Structures are given as C-alpha cells and as structure tokens.
Amino acid sequence: MEDTSPILSVEHLRKSFGPKKVLQDVTFTAAEGEFVCIVGPSGAGKTTLLRCLARLASADDGRVVLAGRPVERPPAEMAVVFQDYSRSLMPWMRVESNVELPLLRSRLTRGERAERVQQALIDVGLPDAGRLYPWQMSGGMQQRVAIARALAYRPSVLVMDEPFASVDAQTRADLEDLTLRLRDRLGVTIVLVTHDIDEAVYLSDKVIVLSGSPATVTAAIPVPLGSEREQVATKAQPEFLRLRAEIHGMIMRSNTASRSVA
Amino acid sequence: MEDTSPILSVEHLRKSFGPKKVLQDVTFTAAEGEFVCIVGPSGAGKTTLLRCLARLASADDGRVVLAGRPVERPPAEMAVVFQDYSRSLMPWMRVESNVELPLLRSRLTRGERAERVQQALIDVGLPDAGRLYPWQMSGGMQQRVAIARALAYRPSVLVMDEPFASVDAQTRADLEDLTLRLRDRLGVTIVLVTHDIDEAVYLSDKVIVLSGSPATVTAAIPVPLGSEREQVATKAQPEFLRLRAEIHGMIMRSNTASRSVA
Amino acid sequence: VAIGAAVLTGCGSSADASGSPAETVAVSVGVTPIANAATVYLAEELGYFADENLDVTPTIIQAAAAAIPSLQNDELQFALVSAVPTITAASKGLPIRVVASNDRYNPDPEAVDGAALVASATSGVTSPSELAGATIAVVGLKSAPELALRLALRGAGVDPESVEVVEIPYPDMVSALTSDRVDAAIVADPFLSQAKAAGLPVVSQPFLDALHGEAGTTWVASERFLQAHPDAGQAFVRAITKAVAYAAANPDAVRDIMGSYTEISPEARAAAVLPYFDSTIDGEDLQFFADALVTEEFIDSAYDASGLLWTLDR
Amino acid sequence: MSAVQAEERPPGALAAGALRLALPRTLPKLAFVAAAVAAWQLWAGAGNLGAVPTPVEVTVALVGIVADGSVWSPLGVTLSAWAISFVIASAMGLVVGFVLGASRLAYRLSVFVLDFCRTIPALGLVPLVVLMFGARMQSTIVLAVFGAVWAVLLQTIYGVRDVDPVARDAFRSSLARRRDVVIRLVLPSAAPYIATGLRLAAAVCLLLTLSAQIVIPSPGIGQQIVLTQLGGAIPKMYAYIVLSGVVGVAINAAFVALERIVLHWHPAHRKAIR
Amino acid sequence: MMKRRAADFGMGLILPLLLIALWWVTSTAADSFYFPPLPHVLDVFADLWVFDLVPVHVFPSLAAIGLGLGISIVLGVALGVLLGLSRFVSDMVSPVLQFLRYLPAVALLPLAIQLIGIGLEMRVLIIVLGAIWPILLNTMDGVRGIHPAVGDVARSTRLDGPTWIFRIVLPAASPQIFTGIRASLAVAVVLMVASELLGSSRGMGYFILESQRQFSIPEMWSGMILLGIIGYLLNVIFGRVEHHVLAWHRLSRS
Ligand SMILES: Nc1ncnc2c1ncn2[C@@H]1O[C@H](COP(=O)(O)OP(=O)(O)OP(=O)(O)O)[C@@H](O)[C@H]1O
Ligand SMILES: Nc1ncnc2c1ncn2[C@@H]1O[C@H](COP(=O)(O)OP(=O)(O)OP(=O)(O)O)[C@@H](O)[C@H]1O
Ligand SMILES: [Mg+2]
Ligand SMILES: [Mg+2]
Question: What residues does CATH 3.40.50.300 cover in chain B?
Fold first, then answer.
C-alpha cells in the first residue's frame, strides 16, 4: 500500500501556543485505505496535530492536502472522534440524536438515517442505548457513542484520538476488528492516535512515532503484517513482537530525552 | 496479605438508577496496604461502585465499612481519582491550585503545601506544569494532574477510576511503579479500576472481576506474585500469564453473556 | 410593612425646633418649578420669612401624589398644590389642611391664559363642541387640567364621557399633535408658544372657560404639624400673604425671580403669562371643587370642604 | 472569540502588532457610533423625531452644562446613589442567592414570596418610599435596590445550581471546608452567571435611580431632567439624558474589562482556544 | 413524585402565611393612612377584582406583557446569538447598544409617541426596550460560554447553519437564556406599569398609579396584591415550561 499516491498528506506543519512550540515541521502521508497510527508521549502534540489535520485549528505554517486539494475548512469527507468524548456529546440530545448529528446534512431520508444510527450503535455494542441521554451512560459507553457517530457518517477519512482508551479489553478488541473491517470493506483511510503500542502495531499499515516538545516525526515505520489481522495469531507473529519492541524503545528514548518521571 | 483484617469492606451494595439495576449485592474487602484492582465490562457499574465506596453516591442497600466504622460521608482518609478527569479539574485554577485542593484542610503551612504539590507534580512527570491552567494541557497531562492531586494528599485509601487510560505506555509504566512504591512506602490501600488486564495483574494483590448488568462479583482472584514487581520480569512469570489468561476468559464470558458486539 | 408602620408611629420631626416665636423655625416647602412658585422665592428674597423667624428651604416636587406623603412624614412642612389633588386627598381622609391661597384662575374669561386647548393640524377642530369622540392629551389624569377640560366640554355641550383623555408630558405634546397621535391637547407655557409657532390652532382656554375666578394653587400643611406649631403656621401664612400681594403688584419681579429656580429662558419668561396672584380664599372656593369633583366622578361621594381651611383665628 | 470561528491569532510582532491589533478593534466601533449619530442628525434635522433635538444641539447643551459646572453636582449625586444601591443590591442578591441556590429547603420556603415580590413594580412603591424616607437619596436607593436585587439573586441561584457534578464530586471527596467549597468551587462556577447578573443589576440600578429621581423627584440627573423639561429647555434635557446613556456605557465598559480579567479562564475569554 | 410536589407546595406556603399574619396584625394595629388594615384592603380587593375590573384593567396589561415579552424573547435571543457568535459584530455595536440600554424610558417616549402613537403598540415597545436586555445579555454570554469541544464537534460534523443554531447553540445556552427570561419577566412588569403612565386609561399599572395619585390607598394596595398574584402565576407558568425544556440540564447536574 505504500506505493499508492497519498490521499492525505501533512506537510511541514508548525504550530505554537504563545511562546510554546508544539508542532515543529510535522510531515507524513496516508495512502487511500491506509491505516496510520500515531504514537508519542503524552503532551507531545498528537491532539493538536489531529485538530490541524481536521482544520479545527489552523497551523502557523505548513499545510494539509486531502485528495489533491489543500484543506481550508473542516473537510466533508472526514469524521473525527475526539479524545474528550464526554464533552463531545451534547447532554441535551439523546444518544440517537448525537449519533445522527453528522447525517443531518446528508440527503438521507429520516428512515435511512435512523437505520444508519441503529447500525452504528449495534456496531459499537450499544444496540439498546438510543433513547438514553449521554449522562445516563458510563464513560466507556459514551466513548463508544462518540465512535458510533463517526461510523454512522461513513467518511472516507476517519480521524480518531485515543478512541478505545476507556473501554474494556474485550470490547476494545471487538472495536479494533470492527475498524479494520471497515477499512477493508469501505476503503476508509484511518488516522488513529493511541498510547497502546500493541494496538498501534496490530491495526496499522504504518506507525508514525512522534517525539515531544516540540513534536517532530521520529520515524514512520511500515508494518508489513499483511491485511488480514487476527487478535491472537497476529500478536504472536515474530514480526509483530519485533515492531512492538522497536517502537517501544523509540518512545522510551524520546521520552527520557524530553522529561523525567520519578 | 489476605489474612490481615480488612481495613475496607464493601458489604452487599445494591444500587439502581430508576428501573435500571446497576449494582446487585456487591461484596469485597481490602486489607490494609492491599492493592485491589477491579475489572469488568464497560458499563458494568465500576464507576458507580467507586462512587458508592467514596460515598459520593449513596447505595440503595448495603454498606461500606472503613477502619471499622461505616462510611456515612466522604471519608477524610480517602482520595479519589475520577474517570472523567478533565471535568474534575477546575478550569479557573492553575494546576498547582488544583493539586493543592485537598491539602487546604490540612494543618500544613503554605510552604509545606507548595512542596507537596511540587513533589506530586514531579512524581507524575509534570515538574514544570504548576503555573498552567488545565485547559492549556493535553488530555494525558490533565489525567496526571488529577493523579497528582490524589498523591499530594497522601491518603490512607486511594481510589482510582481508570487513572492511566490516557497516558503513553512509558509514562503509564512509570506511574504504575510509582503507585506500587507508594503502597510499599506508605502502606496505602489502593482500589483501582482498569480495563487493562495486564495492568490489573501486574499491580494487584487481588483482582475483583465484575460481571455486568447488574454488576455482581464474579470472582475475587488473589495474585500471588509477591510484593516486588518489575515491568519486564513480573510480566514474564508463568503465574502472571496464567492469571492474565484466566481473567481474560472470565471477562469474555461475562461479556458475551450480557451483550453482543458486531 | 412592619418597618413602614414603625416609622409612621414613631415619626421623628426635623422642623420643630420650637413653637415659640422668638426662635427661628426651619421649614421645608415643596414647590413645582413653575411661575406660581415665585411667591415663596420672593418671600425669601424680600426677607418676609426672616421677619417671621422662619428659615425656609424650597424643595422641588413633581406632583401632589409625591408631595403629600412628604407632608405626612414631616419631610415637608408646606406644599404648593393645586386645589384638585388637595381636595381629592382630603376627601380620602388624609389629615391635611389648606392654609392659604397662592393664586386664582383669572376672573376675566376673556383674558389671555398661559394654557390652552390646542388641536392637531389635520383634525380641523376649531371649537370645543367639535371634540366629541376625540382623543385629548392632558399632563396628568384626574388633575386640574382634566377637570377644566371636562367642565369646558360640558359647557360646550359635549359629553365628557365620549372623549378619551390620555396623559402625555408637556414637551411631547407638540410632537403628539403634529404627528396626529392625539386630536387635541391642553398645552401650557412655554410649550404653548411652541405649539403656536408650529401653526397648531388654539381651540379654547378651558381653565378660564370653566374655572375663571376659582382657586388655583393653594398652600397645604399636615394637620399634625399645624396642631404642634400653630404659631409657625400663622407666621408662614402672614409671610406668604405679603409675598402674594407683592407678586401681584410686581410682575417683573416675578419674571426675574423665575430665572433663579427654573430653566425657562429669559425670552420665554418675558413672554410668559403670569398667574393671577391672590391670597384670599374661603370655604366656598374649596366647596366648588369638592362638588365639581363629585359631578365629574373624580371622587365617589360628596365631600364637605368646610373644615378643610385652616384659618388664623382657629 | 466564538466557538465556531475560533481562530488563533498568529503570535505576531510585539509592540507594533499590539497597535495594529488594537486599531482594527476600535475602528469598527467608532465607525458604528459615527453612523448612529449621523443617522440621528439627519433624522432629527429633517424634523422627523418630534421634540428630539439634533445631536449638534444636544452637544452644545452638554458642553454648556459642563462649562458652567452645573452638571457636576447632579452627576455626583446620581453616581453615588447608583454606586450605593448597586453595592447593596449585589451584596444582598449574592448572599441570598447563594443560600437559596445551595439549599433546597430555603428555596422552597421562600419561592412563593420571592416570585410574588419580584413582580411588584419598584415605581409603584414611590409613595410608600417617600413616606418612609422622604424625597432624599435614601428613597432612590431603596427603589433601585428593590428593582435590581432580583437580577443578581436569580443569576446567583441558577449559577450555584450549575456546578459541574464531577467537579462537585472532586471537591466533596477532597473534604474541602464549606468556605473553600464556596470560594473555590461554587463562586467560580457561578461566576459567569453572576457576572451577567451584576451587569444587569448595574443597568437596572442606574435606570431606577434616574426614574426615581424623575418621579419623586429627588436631587440628581433625574431631577435635572424634570427641571429642564418643565422649563422647556429641551436640548439641555437631552444633554442630561445623553449623559445618563454615556454613564451607562462607561459603567458597562468597566464591567467588561473586569470580567475579562476575573473570568479569563472561561471559554468566552480564553486567549488561546484549544 | 406527587407527594414531594405537595410537600414543596405546603412548605412554600409557610412563609407567605407568616408574613400575611404579620401584615394583618401590624396593619390593623397601626392606624396609618398609607398602610390601611389588611382586612380592609382585602374587602376592597374582593369588591374590585372579583371580577368587575378584570377585563378593563387586567386583560390590557396581560396583552401588553404577553406581546412585549414574546417580542423580547424572539428578538433578544436572535440578537444575543448573533452577538455571541461574532465578536466582531458585538464589539462594533456594543457602545451604541449599551447607550440605548441605559437611556431612561422617558427619553424614548417622544420618539415612541412620534413613531407609533400612544396605543398598545407604544406600551409593547416600551416593554421590549427594557425587557430585551436581560435576555439578550444572557443569551450572548451563554453562547460565548459554550465549551470549545462543542464547537469542534459542530465544525467537524459540518452542521448547516440552522442545525448549528437550533440544535447546538440554543440548547447549550438555554440554561442562561432561561435565567434571562425570568429576569425579563420582572422588568416587563415594571415597564408595563411605567408605560401605562402615559397615554393610557386602562391596565394594572394605570390603576395602581391612578389610585395612588387619587390617594385611594386601599385600592392601590389591592392592585399591588393582584399584580403580585399575576406575577406569581406568570412565574409558575414559566417555571413549568422551564422545568420541561431544561429537564436534561437539571437531571445531568443532579
Ligand atoms: N445518571 C445515571 N442515570 C441512569 N443510568 C446511569 C446513570 N449513571 C450511570 N448509569 C448506568 O449505570 C451503569 C453503570 O455505569 P458505570 O459508570 O458505573 O459503568 P462503568 O463500569 O464505570 O463503565 P466504564 O468502564 O464504561 O466506565 C451504566 O449502564 C449506565 O448506563
Ligand atoms: N490551549 C492551549 N494553550 C496552551 N498550550 C496548549 C493548549 N492546548 C495544548 N497545549 C499544549 O500543547 C501540547 C500538546 O498538547 P496535545 O493535546 O496536542 O498533546 P497530546 O499529544 O494529544 O497529549 P495526550 O496524549 O496527553 O493527549 C501540550 O504540551 C499542551 O500543554
Ligand atoms: Mg491528546
Ligand atoms: Mg466508569
């Protein structure tokens, strides 16, 4: 997949908050249907990078090119799952309305929308939650609703910020496989931030390792594990273990370089 | 440690939200200095359980006994780290004030408080973040501030709800070891909710497995890995691997029993 | 409510230093800043109050409704109020008394008045008899202008019930007339000259038509004050009587002194029609209004005004 | 900056940058004020506004009362009556609002009376107030307080109830003293509401101070409006009216500036938007 | 649920009953012209308001308040959203807006009389000119205070304008908007009274002020009591609406 021309390319992004440099010359690409995971220390600038990618913040310099056109506004073919899921759900809307939100702009009929919403809720394991309000749900359930919102939209680029951080191991594995199938079935390009290196290797075609303060791309590591992945078998492959150790080492080095934890 | 008399005992807790039963007869104990991890599917009722434990919510039935006395109000010797960390930090306070919050009631001088705050921030790897506001930080940094607040307080019981969900692998390992050292050094009793089974086994003296809807204790599994743990060596022990597989199996069974993920 | 009652029953007083004529008595006097109030300023300037050992402070009041409570709580000792609200208040049982008259409506119905009924340009009204069904603005409802209007309408053969009387402040009357929001209005100086300048037709002079020779503004005080300080009351009446006579005789002095307490320009003062100053008053003057108020349904039941006047010998 | 149009400003050059940033901020304001005044001049000049004089006439009158010094005493009285009533109304509203917002019992006990009293028009109380306090500053203050206290009270009640439950839990579990809960949790969470309440109360206080000074009348700008009105000095009357508007704008500007500082953490005022 | 409602209601009655008792006793004891005995006031109240004068004085006032408040809500919320969303516009118009806001109503009367006369329209205008501010300010502040995360969601889901306004901005600001409306309710009543001062011969405000000017003090008190009752009822109706609309807010914060 590495040789297809990139559908998404991030070029020399730079961004500061006041005097604090957060992104420094971040560059990477994603080919169509590619699964890219971004890993890096906490506070490195991953969320900031995603926000620039989705044009929710503007970079000080550099640009994002999507399907050949520079991104000037939040692009229609992109869906975003936010790290702060509890705040990304509207407390005055029931779960079904929250999930339906991005569909309102589409040409779907009411019935089609309801169907898509229900399907997305089934996909994330919440088939009966449609009539609840977000604040009636547990943290993990809220996070899954946020994922369902992105799934229901069926974007061509899916950007997710630590989407599985608060769900249990089993659900997490299910959601990982769901995401992989989604990519296979619909050819969605996925950019996902995670702190779980196993998850990053298991899911990706390419892992981008960010170093912190200010963030630069330390390495873009291709993951040649084939397109068929399976929770137990894949994670037992020697290649998987090698990659995992390699990335772990990288993060540890960039981590200790930039700060110290007692 | 199993034979010491329990400092904390949760007895027959029961709680519903309207018609929905969430906790059904939850019972477990923690001995002084014991590290108890709670695992269970998303939406099972772990957060609800912790809130009852800390008396932030009242159970419909049953009681919590701490050091021999039934808990009637949020107990002074307990500190809580919330799952929804971003909302548990006050946006109008700088990080240092947020961390200082529980110390205000203590008899410490201003200088001692500042020192404790700084030490806690160093412990969580944020030595320079004191003057920032929470909304100027990344998600993982906010989560660590929330942890720092609990650490600075030096409680005798520490209750944590998925405290390491949003931090990178390296920081997570560091924080895990920090928590273990804390327990060893100060004899703190720790109740921690996590979705990471490796983490649960690595940290605990006992793992409580909750089943969902409504939550009951499926099993309370002692973890006889000794009190010395080490990220690489401990996780390579056969006993570790066995426990991990056992718990995984349990959760998967209770999971698939209660709901289906596509 | 409880506080109010306490203040009422324990009313302190600021004015009564003593009743003895040898000592100076401080009194506050409520006046509206119009030409009629010139007497009190003249009395002050000419030393009539000082002669009577009175230390008088004029205080601006807006309307009788606000001044009369001030008499009750001793914040004011005297107020210059037109006969209509005075009798209305007295008829409701408020313990107030009229001590002296300040002026009358000009006894000559053909004289030029400082207030007139002015019609809007497009109404085509030229006489009061054409006003049936009209909307007419006055400066205050259930006050002297409305009474004069109703009496004048009756005199012209129009049923007052058929017109709608509305309240509009003087400065806004001209614009209400020119924009046809009302059909007519009772406008007073200095706005009357503005209305004339704007070409609005003067229909009649309702005060002189209906009330010529009747009592205009009167000096009132609270019964309690007069009982406690009869000497001060008499001293005030003597001083103000002299001032009224002086004002009647010296119109230029009146025009001059108006500059000290009003915002009226010198030109307007020079052109102003002055009140007909007259200090005489008797029970019949008051009874006239009492009866008129009943017939015009300003008050519900007949009122005997004979006891209202506080005379020197009582 | 609005949530939708959140756009971080580039760091920009320092001093020159600040000037360049300040100018575009004030320029539209000035332009809009100028346009409004021009519209007034054209309209009133053409005689379409009835008794309302043109801004030129009003300015001349305003300069007149400033030049002869007659403006200062009424202005001073009005401002002090405003300030006193505002302080009293805010203090009362805050304290009572806190109690009623925090205690369901207190709220239930008093809600009838509050809802009843709230709709009693302040101006209807004029005769009673005059009876009790006379035509003095006290009366205007009482009326202004009576009218303005509700804004602060209501906003405080709502604000106190709007504390984020997770934040409240965090406080409860850290066993904060009641004082700390009030000062560090409830007050800041309610602060955006209270700020709005205070701004409203400031306006209501000024309006009621002026209205009371007109209706009673008691000394101050309001009484000057009555005097000039009765004397037919209409441009002067409008000069005083414009003056009260200008005082209002100044008061409001002070509040906005203060709010920017006190509520800097609030999403509405954050410098760097996430 | 029902029981709790009844208990609330009962508790709410304690203080009013106490105050009424206090009023009864003190006013009967104190022989004051301005504070007539409560029994007398109540007699007058029964005479006047059950129900002779209701159509004459109550209906016109309610019409003015209803219209005035309705227009204030629509305009206040619309302008508040506009100003809340656009710093540029709100910065630009704020001096003029604040100036207008601080003008005493008397100053606007000539203009109002000139432009729309002295009828119901003028009263409605006066009410709107005063009652719009609490709503506008609260809406503006509510909109500005929307959490940035909500804005992020809206932009990334590319909501169209109406959806963004009606489904996100308004609900998010609704707690603030409702406090504003509640404050406006009181202002509207005050201004109803003030507006009936001029060019009117009907309405509650007219009745109270006229009674006062006519020194019909028991009548004035009876009018104030009626106004209080009407105000209370308006509040109750409004409270029901709010309870319903803001259910999510109340429950999510409990
Ligand atoms: N305020 C509420 N009203 C109604 N139901 C609620 C409320 N809060 C929680 N619940 C329900 O209680 C159940 C348990 O929630 P809880 O937050 O305790 O789960 P959890 O085990 O912490 O899950 P997670 O791992 O996802 O955080 C959920 O099914 C949730 O829907
Ligand atoms: N509004 C802001 N003002 C100032 N600094 C900010 C702001 N938002 C983020 N930062 C800083 O930018 C840096 C990057 O933040 P970001 O949220 O992108 O990190 P991240 O990689 O997503 O971390 P995490 O894994 O913990 O979520 C952090 O050091 C943070 O302090
Ligand atoms: Mg992040
Ligand atoms: Mg939870």
Answer: 6-77+157-261
CATH number reported for the structural domain that contains residue E146 in this entry = 1.10.3720.10
Number of domains in chain E: 1
For β-strands C78-82 and C25-31, DSSP reports them as parallel
- Ligand 2 centroid to Cα of residue A49, in Å, is 10
Distance, CA of E70 to chain centre: 10
The ipTM (two decimal places) reads 0.82
- Identify the nearest ligand to the CA of A251 by its number: 2
Record: contact A140-B171, CB cut-off 8 A: no
Phi and psi at C55, nearest 5°, equal: -110, 100
How far apart CA C42 and CA E2 sit, in angstroms, is 73
Domain boundaries, chain D: 62-273
Query: CA-to-CA distance for D15 and D8, rounded, in angstroms?
Result: 18
Q: Is residue E13 part of a domain?
A: no
Q: Residue B50's closest CA among B98, B20, B84, B90?
A: B84
Contact E50, E107 (CB under 8 A): no
SS3 call for A150: helix
Chain centre distance of CA C201: 26
A positions 155-174 inside 8 Å of B (CB): 162, 165-172, 174
Beta bridge partner(s), residue B216 = B211
Interface test mutation site (partner A, options E146, E147, E157, E252, max chain A beta carbons within 10 A) = E157
Interface of C with E in 111-170 (CB under 8 A): 135, 137, 140-143, 164-169
Q: In which residue are the tokens 């103000």 written?
A: C240
Per CB-CB distance under 8 Å, the chain D contacts of A51 are 274
- For residue C40, the one-letter residue type is V
Domain B6-77+157-261 has CATH 3.40.50.300: yes
Q: What range does the domain containing E77 cover?
A: 55-253
**Which atom of ligand 2 approaches the CA of A83 most closely?**
27
Which residue type does A94 have?
A: R
Residues with Cβ–ion distance below 5 A, ligand 3:
A 47, 83; B 138-139
* Nearest-10 crossing angle of helices C83-91, C283-295: 80
Distance from the Cα of D19 to chain E's closest Cα (Å) equals 17
Asked if the C-beta of B245 comes within 8 angstroms of chain A's C-beta atoms, the answer is no
Residue tagged 């008050």 (tokens): C299
Q: Which long-range contacts (CB under 8 A, 24 or more apart) does B64-67 make?
A: B64/B8, B64/B9, B64/B10, B64/B11, B64/B13, B65/B6, B65/B8, B65/B9, B65/B11, B66/B7, B66/B8, B66/B157, B67/B7, B67/B8
pLDDT in tens, chain D (274 residues): 333 333 333 333 334 444 555 566 678 888 888 998 898 888 887 777 767 788 888 899 999 988 888 889 999 999 999 999 999 999 999 999 999 988 888 888 888 888 778 777 777 777 677 777 777 788 889 989 988 898 899 889 989 988 888 888 888 777 677 788 888 888 888 988 899 899 889 988 988 888 888 877 788 888 888 888 877 788 888 898 889 888 888 888 888 888 888 888 887 777 543 3
Query: D interface mutation test: which of C8, C70, C173 has the most D CBs within 10 A?
Result: C70
Superfamily of domain D62-273: MetI-like (1.10.3720.10)
Instruction: List residues in chain D touching A: CB distance below 8 A.
Output: 6-8, 10-11, 271-274
Atom 11 in ligand 2: which residue has the minimum CA distance?
B137
Name the residue at shortest CA distance from atom 3 of ligand 2. B136
Closest ligand to the CA of A15: 2
